[in-house]
């Protein structure tokens, strides 16, 4: 039976969009700038599909080949934003016209914080400012351990992040606090995500754990997940996909712990019988490397995924169609530790698909979802333009 697989390399952008200056992201190009900083980076398997053949400045330095075995292109984000929720929603069929609110200047308003305190039994909170997550736990970690008050912070993204030491606030309790925050953050305060950020360690050596959880807004419209599952087909969510879509339209979820786990689980589910959609997010590129400006970690993560790509391709059934893409950029070579407004690559491969097809520059991520629904022969009214006839 026909099946589509989407693997999102979280934050693996491929060049600034024309409006990047509006977002403070001029010069960002996650993939190309990593290659320039680390010329020995070798993504030979991704490039064999056409990664280095994508249109754009300097992209050929990634490794242009004569006859790519896949279809290749890049996608522009039609939504206003550059975050995880906006990017994933758009590829699934929701174009966000009004950007989600941010609170970088003075933190969350008094009325929000007061409600958060009240709903959690008059619990106090520390921070409430824009900050790097790795820095703020070392700045406020000791006070948190002493008082038991969780740390609230935000960033240039539309998020409220709540950090707590796992020995002080158990992980399940932190999730409960975040769920309460999600209920409060509505209307003008409706940030895209509330993120639980557990950490461990001792003074001067606090470290975030893999028990992160995202609590997103309910999708504001119908998505390809809703459409596919409504037809009785499978929608298998791997990684934080279930959080991004608030568990909607998903028939099976596997919340993985890191990139390596996500890759292995994706291979496992490809090998198992199913139909419909497998949707994977590999978050470490963004969470572990991009936001920490860890160029070497990012490079190594990309090379590891590249080394596993032949195994992914070999696992595909004859009627599988694989898409490899991203949701935004997060260039670790720039001063900023935030997401960047970039085009994202899209690579497509199937054992019955065409090879060496340049899909050009797509005007919206939604073309991806539209193509998948077209492939699965599901009629729909979602936005986007299918390019199925170009690849099959």
Overall geometric form: globular
Give the mean pLDDT: 96
- The percent range for helix content is 25-40%
Could you spell the SSE succession in H and E letters? EHHEHHEHEEHEEEHEHEHEHHEEEHH
How many domains? The number is 2
Poorly predicted ranges: none
Say how many strands there are: 14
Keywords:
392 residues; alpha/beta; Alkaline Phosphatase, subunit A; Alpha-Beta Plaits; 2 domains; eight-stranded mixed beta sheet; 13 helices; 32% helix; globular
Describe this structure in words.
The chain is α/β, with parallel strands linked by helices and 392 residues long. The protein folds into 2 domains: 3-97 and 219-391, Alkaline Phosphatase, subunit A (3-Layer(aba) Sandwich); 110-215, 2-Layer Sandwich (Alpha-Beta Plaits), CATH 3.30.70. The protein contains 13 helices and 14 strands. The protein has helices at residues 30-37, 44-49, 84-91, 110-119, 133-147, 171-184, 224-230, 241-244, 259-271, 284-290, 295-315, 366-375, 388-391, and strands at 3-9, 71-75, 126-130, 151-154, 159-165, 193-202, 205-208, 213-216, 234-238, 252-254, 276-282, 320-325, 344-349, 357-362. The strands form 2 sheets. Strands 10-9-11-1-12-13-2-14 form an 8-stranded mixed sheet, sandwiched between helices. Strands 3, 4, 5, 6, 7 and 8 form a 6-stranded mixed sheet that branches. Helix 6 links the parallel strand 5 (159-165) and strand 6. The two termini are 16 Å apart.
